Amino acid sequence: MNPHQQKIVQYLNEAHASETALIRVLQSQIAMTPRGAYRSALETHLTETKDHARRVERRLGELGRGENPLQAIVGAAESVIGQALALGKTPLDLLRGTNGEEKVLKNAKDAAATEALEIATYTSIERLAEAAGDTRTAELAASIRADEERMLERILGEIPKLTTAVVGGKPFDLSTTGAAEAVKRTVGPRPGADELPIDRYDALTAEQITGRLKRLTQAELAKVEAYERRHENRTTVLERVATLRGDEPWPGYDELNAADVRSALADADPERLRAVRDYERAHKDRSSVLQVAERELTAA
After folding, report:
1. DSSP 8-state symbol, 196
2. How far does CA 7 lie from the centroid of its chain?
3. What is the mean pLDDT of each run of 10 residues along the chain (300 residues)?
4. Which of 264, 237, 266, 238 is nearest to 252 (CA)?
5. Does domain 3-187 bear CATH number 3.30.2350.10?
6. Contact indicator for 152, 24 with CB cutoff of 8 Å
């Protein structure tokens, strides 16, 4: 691994530690934020942050983080420190300000600072990756940075309203913000066997399960992975899930039927056509979709 690649791995480790810690902070802030536009923004960003952590971790694996023992130790240490800081900060959030409105405002200001730091982090990763000719890492950083920029814009748009609530809003009690319900919803319940997308899951062999994974959506794959890790923890199943996990060609793709996808490809650019083709080959493998994607790519 050359010096450029080592630095990329270092920065990605830092980003992963930040994302992992931010998950815990967002969960605590959601728990003390009343329902409304700002809490919806936090809940949406929690989902994005979990996705960011997963994507960065996957890229680190592709770059061979485990090949260098020192880098692996540093990466693990950064993740532990980040989570420890997040857990230590959570109870302090509850003590900030004189009332609920002020606590939420202070948390929002912290969130704005966090987003600015993440934007700087991913900007650095993107530029470093471009200089090293690492297109995949550069594209990953640019994609995540766009999410962080969008979240920062939403926070800045909410701060004036949150400030108005401090000086003239109706006070609210943190105990009435639906904390337990909010955290449960954002973290998500652990699936039981009856909630899995594969019938009679517990009665199947690992080989039978892996043979049925290809057509599952990303959300369904996540359920299978969570359940498998808590129960049998079979390497063959988990490795197959890992090979299938990935970004959809566009948000909501997995929920579309073949006819909807074919219709969407009519005016698609070559990049989207290739994304659909590659994703279909690895997952649903719908012949009608693949035929249209190939035909449109040939004509492009």
Report:
1. S
2. 23
3. 84 90 83 84 90 91 62 44 42 50 88 93 95 94 94 93 78 48 43 78 90 85 86 88 82 80 84 89 87 88
4. 264
5. no
6. no
